[in-house]
Amino acid sequence: MQIEHLNADRIPAVIELWDKVGLTRPWNDPGHDLRRALRGPSSTVLVGVEGDMIVASAMVGHDGHRGWLYYLATDPDHQRRGLGTELVAACESWLVNRGMPKVQLMVRGDNVAVIGFYRHLGYGEDDVRVLSRRLDHS
Ligand SMILES: CC(C)(COP(=O)(O)OP(=O)(O)OC[C@H]1O[C@@H](n2cnc3c(N)ncnc32)[C@H](O)[C@@H]1OP(=O)(O)O)[C@@H](O)C(=O)NCCC(=O)NCCS
């Protein structure tokens, strides 16, 4: 697998992958999320490519204090081959190169299955609650 920065032309292929693995939600416009992440210097989208196909993807960014991972996905036909692990390592390198001392991510409450994956990579659970409020509509 070759890891590249996503070219905006291939946004539809990434959305297709996210749909396949169940990462999209009706209240988040995935195209908008991807374009926003590609826009500035503090975030990007990395994709794993084999031949012509995008087989894995992850969004990575930082807020000036911590690094964040979002939307990690490996195509179901290519899972358990180490691609997710490779992509997380590439995201971590991207953050280290920008001086970030820590990486964190949020896992939806119903996505218990993925916890084993992150634990395998050395991630631990923090005792925090995430609070949020939408700013794009009142
Ligand atoms: C999470 C995900 C990206 C992992 O991708 P992957 O390419 O299959 O991961 P890897 O092959 O690198 O897995 C490495 C190790 O993690 C562990 N692991 C992977 N998936 C696992 C799972 N579903 N449950 C428990 N452990 C898991 C295994 O120990 C695995 O090693 P092994 O195959 O030798 O046993 C993939 O399962 C996925 O796309 N899931 C759906 C989307 C999702 O939930 N994303 C995360 C949002 S926070």
Helix/strand-derived category reads alpha+beta
How many helix segments? 4
Topology, number of strands: 5
How confident overall, as mean pLDDT?
A: 96
Q: What is the CA-based Rg, rounded? A: 15 Å
Poorly predicted ranges: none
Instruction: Please give the share of residues in helix.
Output: 25-40%
Which percent band covers the strand fraction? 15-25%
> Which term fits the overall shape?
globular
How is the largest sheet built, in terms of strand order?
1-2-3-4-5
Q: Biggest β-sheet: count, sense, barrel?
A: 5 strands, mixed
Cα separation of the termini = 43 Å
Which molecules are bound in this entry?
A: coenzyme A
Order of helices and strands: EHHEEEHEH
Report what the structure shows:
There is one protein chain. With 138 residues, the protein is an alpha+beta fold. Helices cover 31% and strands 24% of the residues. It is built from four helices and five strands; from the N terminus they run βααβββαβα. The longest helix is centred in the middle third of the chain and has 14 residues, at 83-96. The radius of gyration is 15 Å and the shape is globular. Bound molecules: coenzyme A. The site of coenzyme A has 20 residues, from strand 4, helix 3 and helix 4. Coenzyme A (COA) is lined by residues 21, 23, 72-74, 79-85, 105, 107, 111, 113-114, 116-117, 120.
